């Protein structure tokens, strides 16, 4: 099986470790294979968009979700290291408001599957990080929302960084609280 899958603190969020072939030239691996992904996870997803961002140390992007066209995301890091977080915001879920966080780094090749219905974000722990992800629906800016990264009702245990750098929409005054979503 080219992926090994482990569960996380949230039953529907999965950590995937692909099989990597290293040799004297470097490495090769299949960063995505639809058939193997389905077989390993039991998830029947159709990915329609690939995204790539680069960020510097202390950048925190998130916690983002879309009220329409909710996106499932298969995320990975190809340079540097991040702390990646998913929060269950499905109103009918017994895990509503609970989070899971994982270090993703280029050297480990791990990927996180975050189903639709979760808010997602990450904090960059290295000088820079390149973050790549596939999504199961298209970007819908009018329905995009940000859950405040430091909402005490979610209480994410973020690794300490000197300065957290946010976009305007992710700041305390603009982002939503768990109780308001
Ligand atoms: C997310 C996104 C942004 N954009 C544009 C809008 C904007 O001008 C510029 C930067 O967008 P943002 O500030 O929203 O980028 P960013 O803060 O990196 O947003 C992303 O954060 C992570 C945590 C996620 O989970 C993603 O789904 C997405 O919300 O790129 C697109 O054209 N397509 C997209 O899919």
Automatic annotation (TrEMBL):
GO molecular function annotations of the record: dTDP-4-dehydrorhamnose 3,5-epimerase activity
EC number(s) from the headed UniProt entry: 5.1.3.13
Biological-process GO terms, alphabetical: dTDP-rhamnose biosynthetic process; polysaccharide biosynthetic process
Marked site (Participates in a stacking interaction with the thymidine ring of dTDP-4-oxo-6-deoxyglucose) residue numbers: 139
Domain of life: Bacteria
GO cellular component: cytosol
Catalytic activity: dTDP-4-dehydro-6-deoxy-alpha-D-glucose = dTDP-4-dehydro-beta-L-rhamnose
Keywords: Isomerase
Active site: 64 (proton acceptor), 133 (proton donor)
InterPro entries to which the protein is assigned, alphabetical: RmlC-like (IPR000888), RmlC-like_jellyroll (IPR014710), RmlC_Cupin_sf (IPR011051)
NCBIfam families: rmlC
Oligomeric and partner information: Homodimer.
Known role: Catalyzes the epimerization of the C3' and C5'positions of dTDP-6-deoxy-D-xylo-4-hexulose, forming dTDP-6-deoxy-L-lyxo-4-hexulose.
Listed PANTHER family: DTDP-6-DEOXY-D-GLUCOSE-3,5 EPIMERASE (PTHR21047), THYMIDINE DIPHOSPHO-4-KETO-RHAMNOSE 3,5-EPIMERASE (PTHR21047:SF2)
Protein name: dTDP-4-dehydrorhamnose 3,5-epimerase
Gene source species: Orrella marina
